[in-house]
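Dear support,

Our group has been running a series of protein-ligand predictions, and this particular one with SKM is the one our PI (initials K.S.) wants archived with full inputs and outputs. We had some confusion internally about which version of the output was final, so please treat the block below as the authoritative record. The input we submitted was:
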Amino acid sequence: MPSTLQRPIVLIGPMGAGKTSVGKRVAKALGRPFVDTDKLLVSRHGAIAALFETHGEPHFRELERAAVAETLASDDVAVVSLGGGAVLDESTRALLADAHVVLLTVTPEAVGPRISGSDRPLLHHDGLAAWQAIAEARAPIYASLADLTLDTSHRPLSHVVDDIVTWAGTEPA
Ligand SMILES: Nc1ncnc2c1ncn2[C@@H]1O[C@H](COP(=O)(O)OP(=O)(O)OP(=O)(O)O)[C@@H](O)[C@H]1O
Ligand SMILES: O=C(O)C1=C[C@@H](O)[C@@H](O)[C@H](O)C1
Ligand SMILES: [Mg+2]
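Confirmed final output from the archive:
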């Protein structure tokens, strides 16, 4: 049954934490629309790795900020999964003030298999070492925004989804 959630649920966290997979399932469980901003950007501008290579990361962040702003301005969208670095942008962070923000975390040990073979440009050179450095540098930003934090390292997707759905039902509208 569709929920009456008044504010969107926004999933943040490092690459491979499960934002896309979990967000899609939370939206389905709530019977509400879902947007993954990485997927939105790919549908409009092509592969993220090519965008980084051709136009650079700052250009990608601008496109990302616009995509997040547009998505959160829609009355229809209830669950939004962001790209891992979206919260680096100050104005993107400000857009999250009215959302239920859920931080998904994952340990380096657990994320290894999840990111192997992923086409994330920031991981092209050093893989797991790059992931770890990026995740550590961003951890304070993620933590400062989170209303709920869930570690996904050793938990099936369905348990993470159930926790978010239950928590959303207890949050003030
Ligand atoms: N709790 C989990 N247990 C096991 N595997 C998981 C879990 N959550 C996600 N995965 C797997 O990890 C991979 C990455 O997940 P996902 O794409 O959802 O991460 P993400 O946070 O959206 O990453 P990105 O920032 O790169 O978009 C997928 O193959 C997914 O099936
Ligand atoms: O953590 C990051 O900076 C990124 C994560 C991905 O979701 C993509 O948005 C892109 O590869 C950048
Ligand atoms: Mg994703």
